[in-house]
Amino acid sequence: MKIGRNDKCWCGSGKKFKRCHYGRENETPVSKGEAIGHSQKNASRKYCYAPADLKHECSQKIINAHTVSKSSSLKEIADESNHVLGLKINFANIARNKGKLIPEKIGINQASTFKGFCSKHDKSLFSCIEDREFIGDDEQCLALMYRSVAKEIYAKEGGLNTSDFAKNSDKGKNILDQMFIQKFAANHETGTKAALTELSELKSQLDNQLLGKSVDSLSHLIIHSTSPMPVAVSSVVSPITDFDGNLIQDLGNLSLVAEHLVFNSFSSDGKGYVVFSWLKTSTKVLSFINSLLALEENKIFSSLIRFFFGLAENTFISPVWWNGLSSEQKDKINSLIMSGVSPFVHNDRNLLVDDGISFSGWKVGSLRRINF
Question: Which of 96, 108, 168, 350 has its CA 20 to 30 A from that of 70?
Fold first, then answer.
């Protein structure tokens, strides 16, 4: 491959070759310290994701907002030292664990936090789920959904920053490695931008509902139990397959608009809840939910465990529950956590299908369908 010094660089940056990748193989490689510094800076970004119409009310003091309630849910499953088990997803930790994500102790003050709301809006938007018992009314379900979507947008915006950083990580590499890194970063950036566009549209619809500009656009499934839920989670996914292994939607086709499912697992007043939420128009997500509802009731908890750990990262575990698991059960969860981590391994269509490894510790008490 021969490129003139003044030609556009092959990497697609739009810069001239001489100001971009010319001599890149001789540059000093990105250090571990630089990578850790980027990871820490990226995780410290501050922004308030309240609706634009409410921005004039911002207190300007961005706080560590909990995506899973500390006062009820995290305290309910924490050990005597007020710690839960969760994933510490940062470059330093991943490097220390040699690329593996493993459950580790996290204090409940740090678990599930992100700098995504000012103190004013964190209080006004989410006091309905933080300060009173969960009853599953429209206000509480919307608040759960809104906070999860804001956290996911925060994560995706951080992902774009990481793509930019990754493009410079080919310094000191040979030309073939440079091309591989640039292609990987470009593909990651394309996928992240598509997801961010879709999530921003979803948030816009939630903004309208929050401000009273639209009604009856959301559907919810509430699974209730009389005992606390040992696994707390708050996340957003676009399900690819259902609990029978059937294809739901092909996320590899960027011309199609992905449908999103928001889910929260938590405890409130000593009871346990799992809340699924989606746009009423999302028929593919409804198909996914129906595959869950078709399961035998005594298999739902095990199916939820596969779903939580196979598709979500913002997941927190009761140390007592974890310590009571067998080696086989722990190995299963660890393998679920690593599913989808490597971009070079195809998604397992049977990820959510019952493989005979079951889990106990939580029984379904009731199922409540709302607006579907």
Answer: 96
